[in-house]
Amino acid sequence: MSSIRVRFAPSPTGPLHIGGVRTALYNYLFAKKHKGKIILRVEDTDQSRFVKGAEDYIIKSLNWCGINFDESIVSGGNFGPYRQSDRKSLYLEYANQLVKNNFAYYAFDTSEELIEMRDNMKKAGVPSPQYNSITRKNMQNSLSLSEDEVNKRITKGDDYVIRIKMPRNEEVKINDLIRGWVSVNSNNMDDKVIFKSDGMPTYHLANVVDDYLMKISHVIRGEEWLPSAPLHVLLYRYLGWEDKMPEFAHLPLILKPDGNGKLSKRDGDRLGFPVFPIEWKNPETGDISSGYRESGYFPSAFINMLSFLGWNPGTTQEIFSMPELIDTFSLERVGKAGAKFDFDKTRWFNQQYLRAKSSEELSEKLQEILKEQGIVKDNKFVAQVCEQLKERATFVNDMWREGKYYFEAPNEYDSKTVRKKWKEDTPLLLMEFKNKLELISDFSSENIEFSFKEYLQEKDIGMGKLLPAFRLSLTGVGMGPSLFDIAALLGKKETIFRIESAIKNII
Ligand code: GLU
Q1: Catalytic residue positions?
Q2: Long-range contacts (CB closer than 8 Å, 24 or more residues apart) made by 471-475
Q3: pLDDT digit string (tens) for 358-369?
Q4: Which one of 8, 75, 178, 473 has the lowest number of neighbouring Cβ atoms within 10 Å?
């Protein structure tokens, strides 16, 4: 097989939705698996939809995800430039070649004339009027006007576009790697504009020309581009490149959690989860949309979750590192059906990754949060906190939120637990138990537990009589990791201080 070259070709029209990241990921996995190259090409030919900051956002997002490109606007490469607006001068030649070979034509119609044509057609009972092999005859173009008139208009500097001359009644077929044969009759396709009056090609022409010039072997992109594929096939044919045409693979949509339609930003807002990899600030409104990075996800967990939205390994294994994904991924195992987004599963992935990390690694992240809070603690202590909390956390931030008591004595006590568990005789029991704790010389979890149980026996009371009150004293809450571990980590002095404070403060 000739060398594998794929591209991710986003348009900088806003932040990159997770669907876009998934497309980039599958391209990346496919390229790496086949020892090929992946290219990042920015498709910015539609200047009216250009959004400031979007290009930078896309690069930062993919970088965070660990999706690296062999050729791009940043790293360059032998097939550049990699931004279509920087390739502007290149496309007209191909558009003109199509006109010369009678596969495309100049069209001078003003927007008023186009509206009029559509209105008239609608009145005549055509529900979705198109500029096509029938209507073009009555429009202002180089097929309906005389050669003289066309030349006159061009010399005069009239605005014109170039449209593809869609053939009448021809089956256009493509063999999609995921969907198999797809066939569309050209009667259902219109004479799409391929070159605009502003001197820029449209997406279709630029995309095909660049895929050809950049020697792209496989076009792996979202299902929303499937309707454009037959037009692209015709462009390859008319430009004489059919034998160089890449293979196509159209990826299934990412659906809303209930499966009803495509996942949108609004679903994320409504259901409370991010749909963007990193936070996005709308440059016009200043509105902030949350990102997975800022919500505390590990990029590896995010990528692992995304990999399963449309693909599966055919085994029960769910946790895959990037190298394992590269090894296992194949387009054959990408399904046709839309993939439902599952936010609980997304959280689950993060939890699995958190648990798999060493306490030392987690402590580095927790230290960042502590620093923001102005708390200084040595790494060994913080790592032990992580060790105790990691089974109970989904995000590093959970360890701070739920484990504040490791770093500062509680200044309030959970009222429900107080009401239920703090009885009249509790202060006395706690005081006596505290006196026993004072006698422990090696303040280890085991020794504390031993002393605790011994005290229960002496008093002939059950756990429930003392443990919740002990916990309240140390943590201010009714639940958490092993209390003996907590006490041992806090140390004797702090444990005793907290018990005394609780006796004083809880009434
Ligand atoms: N520029 C298109 C987009 O924004 C690329 C589609 C394709 O990959 O051909 O998604």
Answers
A1: 265
A2: 471/417, 472/413, 472/414, 472/417, 472/418, 472/421, 472/422, 472/502, 472/506, 473/430, 473/498, 473/499, 473/501, 473/502, 473/503, 474/405, 474/410, 474/498, 474/499, 475/405, 475/410
A3: 999 999 999 999
A4: 75
- pTM for the complete prediction? 0.93
Nearest CA to ligand 1 atom 5: 9
Given the CA of residue 43, which atom of ligand 1 is nearest to it? 1
C-beta atoms surrounding 306 within 10 Å: 27
Contacts by residues 266-275 (CB-CB < 8 Å, ≥ 24 positions apart): 267/341, 271/343, 273/343, 273/346, 275/17, 275/18
Write the pLDDT tens digit of every residue in 418-450.
999 999 999 999 999 999 999 999 999 999 999
Ligand 1 centre distance from Cα of residue 286 (Å): 26
* Centre of ligand 1 from the C-alpha of residue 455, in Å: 71
Mutate to test the pocket of ligand 1, among 207, 211, 220 (most ligand atoms within 8 A of CB): 207
d(CA 220, CA 11): 15
CA distance linking residue 166 with residue 192, whole number of Å: 8
Q: Residues 448-468: pLDDT tens digits?
A: 999 999 999 999 999 999 999
